[in-house]
Predict the structure.
Amino acid sequence: QSVLTQPPSASGTPGQSVTISCSGSSSNIGSNTINWYHQVPGTAPKLLIYNTSQRPSGVPGRVSASKSGSSASLAISGLQSEDEADYYCATWDDSLNAWVFGGGTKLTVL
Amino acid sequence: EVQLVASGGGLAHPGRSLRLSCAASGFTFDDFAMHWVRQAPGKGLEWVAGISWNSLSIVYVDSVKGRFTISRDNAKNSLYLEMNSLRTEDTAFYYCTKGSTIAARRLGWFAPWGQGTLVPVSS
């Protein structure tokens, strides 16, 4: 069972918007910045969002993220087939003294 | 271009040892912390261990404490993971990844990631 809770799946049709949630506690999301990674099955994960809401170069503007209290969310608008992947939130946990990941959300573009 | 190439994976029996290596290139290796993250087949990501730029700060997930040792050789631009007393639940792809700061704790993010090396633990 992961320290950070994500829905196991999410879906949308091309052009739609989807939001993926990541719920934690005061010792992790509530105290630290959040990073999001995405992974196409069979390949290595890649950084999608850093410092809670910053996009690395190459990540389109239709990808955004935010945090409120002990929860974070990732939003993708204008869904495209290339967005199909697994998405993971991650942060540092002050109580566990460890980096923690969410369980992952499989995004399907219908 | 930053490259991380992990090696050393392969079938291991329960209770035995294995040493993973990660060769880094394309960046100033001793300016950054480094980490190992694993992924059991069909499962999610689990951070395993992190080491600061100068090896003075090292952190582990509880499940590997006392069994795994992370280390680095800045002269060789290399990261290592010594895995002892392997268990079947250690079966996973092991990814090496670069931290974004000198610190292994609390700050930053992981990017990029190497291609991963598979460690199946089975009798």
Summary: The CA atoms of residues 30 and 74 of chain B lie 6 Å apart. The interface with chain A takes residues 35, 37, 44-47, 50, 59-62, 95, 100, 105-116 of chain B (CB under 8 Å). Strands of chain B lie at 3-7, 18-25, 34-39, 45-51, 58-60, 68-73, 78-83, 92-99, 110-113, 117-119. The mean pLDDT of chain B is 97.
